[in-house]
Amino acid sequence: MTQPEILLAIEDLTVSFDGFKAVDSLNLYVDKHELRAVIGPNGAGKTTVLDLICGRTKATAGKIQFKDKDLTRLSEHEIVHMGVGRKFQTPSIYGNLTVYENLEISYPKGRTVWGSLTFRRTAEIMERVKEVATEIFLEEYLHMEAELLSHGQKQWLEIGMLLIQEPELMMLDEPVAGMSVREREQTADLLNRICKNRSVIVIEHDMEFVKSIAHKVTVLHQGKILAEGKMENIQNDERVIEVYLGH
Amino acid sequence: MDKKLIKDRSWIVGLGLLAVLTMVVFPVFFDIFRLNLIGKYLTYAFVAVGLVLCWGQGGILSLGQGIFFGLGGYCMAMFLKLEASDPVSTAIQTTPGIPDFMDWNQLTALPFFWVPFRSFTFTLFAIVAVPALFAFLVGLAMFKRRVGGVYFAIITQASALILTTLIVGQQGLIGGINGITDLKTLHGWDIRTNSAKYVLYFLNALLLIGVLVFSRFITSSKLGRLLLAMRDKEDRVRFSGYDVSNFKIFIFCMAGVISALGGAMFTLQVGFMSPSFVGIVPSIEMVIFTAVGGRMSLLGAVYGTLLVNFGKTYFSESYPTLWLFCMGALFISVTMFFPYGLAGLYDKYLKKQVLAKWTKLRTGKTPETDKNTETQIVGATP
Questions:
Q1: What is the pTM of this model?
Q2: CB-defined contacts A:B, below 8 A
């Protein structure tokens, strides 16, 4: 069996806020086309890790190697251009624009001031927007103002806004929060389809959901990795049960 | 798609109406004294339009737009002043050939930064470039550091104060508190005559229409949508791969340049420029014009400016002491009760009737929305 290629390598990553180490010498490796779930109790540093990868928070020490570049030196938009997409915990969409416009803005073209002034809708872009809208179950709502979507649909829309950028690494912060059971199933399907040609990191509290999607699970606790491996092993790990699953 | 087309058409009609109002109705009904006054108000409308771009669309509240109005106005005034200070007409001065206020302040040579303003071409260039550069530097310093919101407003306000103080303190160099006065000719063409005032009024109105068309181009481009998106969810835009600060700097510069055009036209029509159009009070007044007109509406900003200034002229002629209170009350009531200003009121109460009348006029049919007509037809067929 060939060794899978590593897409993201986090080594000795540390960030401290006024002496409090939110992430403490973390080592994490994500393979190409892997779907990794990150779980852990509140305050374990899950969201902070995503913030560090996408450049929202600057690391105190350590490296984040993505492909052949160190992300800790790049600014947010450069990291996006490298192929990293990030979904926020609360659905972060443009309420006063339509679903179509939300997706179009995220289309990776016309990203400079001049480019956006001279941006024209082409058949290719319209086609791609429709394609993504279909994938995220919103093809019927293209011309609706995004504010009017349900909470779950907003979550999908934000996932769609990442998809249209074709990122190689997608990071989703609690993508099924506030979704109905049916919506959760649809989302699990969606994620399983998505990770066919890219890597995905998902932060989630819903264990059933994690079980249905994750290839590998990482448990964070107090900024450190407590356990890592297949879901079955994690569920039976005594330390994990004590700090997280037992509650 | 259809909805957008209707929006475009009604905007063009709105622009046409404004053009007719400013270029036909006003000149027909008002004498040159009043018309010149309206011309002055319309120069403020440039600033208001700029504020719609950066405040309404981009969410960047600047309380220092007077700076740019002043920079444009001063550039034009410097050129006109140099032309008015030829050695023959300033022969009685100790140093003939320099502006009178320099002579009063014992200057014996033209300061270096005045020299290029002998050229009209350079002056036109400077009217655009100086405010653009200033806005660029302020924008670069603020937006790259992610300063925004109230902090940005305070900094722009402080800048307006600093610039006023600077101008007032440099009486010999730039005319001090009196400003640059006694402007006479532009390339030998006397700008004080009635005919010149007419020409300048129409030039100003045309330029304003041009600025509105250009601004509309910006707001309806992807950049316009990006600005709205940024106002709403800045982080999302950033993490969609955009360098947010560049867009903010751009729109702030645009607002500055547009204000400066207004300032230059002000100097031409009113015949002087002084620090009282640069400072905090005029800057805030301009924000009020925009708020009254509707901060999301380019056309609304023009009407807001006209309305508040007509009100100001009327009230300050009749009840001079009450005016400031009226202005304050107006601002408070607009922000509390009509956050989208005149344009918002129009959209809410009048738009439907106006659009219906319009369709009736054009097609001769009683208009119904498409869906209603369809259901009626379906319902009528047994």
A1: 0.90
A2: 74
